Amino acid sequence: MESLIPYILSFSFTILVACIMAFLASGLFLYLNIRRINQVMRHPYLNKYRWEQLPATMKLTITLDYFLRLTFPRAKWWVFGEANKLLAEVEPTEISMRLRWPVVGFWGGVFIGIVAMLVLWAMLLLAA
After folding, report:
1. What is the DSSP letter of 1?
2. Is the CA virtual torsion 101, 104, 109, 112 positive or negative?
3. Helix crossing, 56-71 with 97-127: angle to 10°?
4. CA angle centred on 112, ends 45 and 107, rounded to 5°
5. What does 31-97 look like in DSSP terms, one character per residue?
6. What is the pTM of this model?
7. Which of 12, 17, 44, 54 could crosslink 119 through cysteines, CB 3.0-4.6 Å?
8. How far apart are CA 66 and CA 108, in angstroms?
9. At 18, which helix (H) or strand (E)?
10. Pair 88, 69: CB distance under 8 Å
11. What is the pLDDT of residues 31-59, one digit of tens each?
12. pLDDT per residue as tens digits for the range 65-81
């Protein structure tokens, strides 16, 4: 096991850096295209409030709902199911890739980066 730790450590660090880069690039494109993404995805919260009025936590929640709908369109359980109920009229296959990849890249980079960071910390603790 001790011979594998350096390889797993370097691999998890590389994945973590790649996730950070994907998060930053997708976040920039998400910021630049959020108006078009909101028009296509039609989140119900945006019927009551304008995007500019919402706090950052609600904006991130809305983009997380978009991610969950695009990534798990048939899920009916927990947060996945709630996002699918809110965005039921949106068909994920009809959303163009130009609008889909910033959302999936942003949240995918976050979640895979969290896993990579946990593996990195575990390997650092095992190596010590």
Report:
1. -
2. negative
3. 100
4. 20
5. HHHHHHHHHHH--THHHHS-GGGS-HHHHHHHHHHHHHHHH-TT--SHHHHHHHHHTTT--GGGS-H
6. 0.90
7. 12
8. 12
9. helix 5-41
10. no
11. 999 999 999 999 999 999 999 999 999 99
12. 999 999 999 989 999 99
**Cβ neighbours for 8, distance < 8 A, ≥ 6 positions apart:** 119, 123
- Decide: 65 and 83 in contact? Cβ < 8 Å: yes
Check residue 128 and report its DSSP letter: -
The burial of 92, by beta-carbon neighbours within 10 Å (0-12 exposed, 13-18 middle, 19 or more buried), is given as middle
**The residue to which tokens 């609008």 are assigned:** 99
pLDDT at 2 (0 to 100): 78
Question: If we measure between CA atoms, which residue out of 62, 68, 65, 27 comes closest to residue 46?
Answer: 62
Nearest Cα neighbor of 26 from 110, 113, 117, 126 is: 110
Tokens of 38: 């909101």
Query: What is the Cα–Cα distance from 111 to 103, expressed in whole angstroms?
Result: 12
| Angular region, 92: left φ>0, alpha ψ -120 to 50, beta rest | alpha
